[in-house]
């Protein structure tokens, strides 16, 4: 299976999809309309497809993503051209659609970070729920080095992921964070040898995908909502979602599997 947009390749492996940023010759930038549309459209698709229980996002070639296309910045082309008002709209109607889409993606997303994740590419990994990194990967919130700021929500994403002190260190220095340091900081879940990256990401995805899909999706939404709701409001939402979960066929199957000491066979019903 693959999309018509070759900037993002999509493969299905059981209940898991692998999305590959496929512009390796220019290090997989994500600022062009075709890749933005591909990511947004595929999120909308899997939100409606309960056969998809986890997504792995990775990059082709040696880099995960270089973020914005610096050549376009130099040429003031594409979303980087025009008046300040046009630039503002270019961000809002362009690259900022990616964090909004991934934030509302109902399916858990794992970043398999195969190489450098720079600027918006670094932020793209933070838009995912979990991150597995190759030993060759490194991360840089490098906007300040180009005289700009994180225009894709990076300040929010970094702070939510690392806390204010580490977020400030990355955003205000623009320094590289190597994979072992990223693991120590809690930026990634796991670091593996390059040749083990996709298998490690699939193994983590499989640990997610073995569970009932409705429970996975609702649990992910609760994690998202916990970032801005009070405990009282989250408890109310949890009660409502729990009532729905108790009335699913997968819940009854999970109980039967537990009593029978066997794996569950879940259908998303």
Describe this structure in words.
This protein is an alpha/beta fold and 269 residues long. It has 12 helices and 9 strands. Helix 1 packs parallel to helix 4 and helix 6 (154-162) packs across helix 7 (164-173). The longest helix has 16 residues, at 231-246. It is globular and about 65 Å long.
List the helices and strands and how they pair.
Elements: E1 8-13, E2 16-21, H1 33-47, E3 54-59, H2 70-75, H3 84-92, H4 97-103, E4 109-113, E5 117-118, H5 120-127, E6 130-134, E7 138-140, H6 154-162, H7 164-173, E8 176-178, H8 179-185, E9 190-192, H9 197-209, H10 213-225, H11 231-246, H12 249-260
Parallel strand pairs: 2-3, 3-4, 4-6, 5-7, 6-9
Antiparallel strand pairs: 1-2, 7-8
Helix pairs in contact: 1-4, 5-6, 6-7, 10-11
Helix content: 40-55%
**Unreliable segments of 5+ consecutive residues:** none
Strand order in the sheet with the most strands: 1-2-3-4-6-9
Number of helices: 12
The run of helices and strands is EEHEHHHEEHEEHHEHEHHHH
Distance between the termini: 25 Å
Computed CA radius of gyration, to the nearest angstrom: 19 Å
What gross morphology would you assign?
globular
Number of strands: 9
Q: Proportion of β residues? A: 5-15%
The biggest sheet amounts to: 6 strands, mixed
In terms of structural class, how would the helical and strand content be classed? alpha/beta
- Taking all residues together, what is the mean pLDDT? 94
């Amino acid at each position: 299976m693959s999309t018509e947009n070759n900037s993002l390749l999509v493969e299905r492996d059981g209940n898991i999809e692998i999305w590959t940023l496929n512009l390796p010759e220019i290090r997989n930038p994500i600022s062009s309309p075709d890749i933005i549309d591909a990511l947004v459209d595929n999120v909308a698709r899997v939100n409606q497809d309960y056969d998809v229980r986890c997504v792995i996002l990775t990059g082709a070639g040696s880099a995960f993503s270089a973020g914005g296309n610096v050549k376009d910045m130099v040429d003031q082309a594409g979303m980087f051209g025009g008046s300040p008002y046009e630039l503002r709209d270019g961000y809002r109607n362009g690259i900022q659609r990616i964090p909004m889409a991934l934030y509302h993606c109902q399916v858990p997303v794992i970043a398999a970070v195969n190489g450098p994740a720079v600027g918006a590419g670094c932020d793209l990994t933070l838009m995912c729920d979990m991150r597995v990194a190759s030993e060759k990967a490194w991360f840089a919130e490098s906007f300040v080095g180009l005289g700009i700021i994180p225009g894709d929500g990076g300040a929010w994403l970094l702070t939510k992921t690392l806390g204010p002190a580490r977020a400030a260190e990355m955003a205000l220095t623009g320094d590289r964070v190597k994979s072992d340091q990223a693991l120590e900081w809690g930026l990634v879940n796991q670091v593996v040898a390059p040749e083990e990256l996709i298998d490690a990401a699939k193994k983590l995805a499989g640990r997610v995908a073995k569970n009932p899909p409705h429970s996975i999706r609702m649990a992910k939404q609760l994690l998202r909502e916990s970032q801005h709701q009070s405990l009282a409001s989250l408890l109310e939402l949890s009660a409502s979602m729990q009532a729905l979960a108790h009335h699913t066929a997968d819940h009854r199957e999970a109980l039967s599997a537990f009593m029978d000491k066997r794996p569950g066979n879940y259908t998303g019903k």
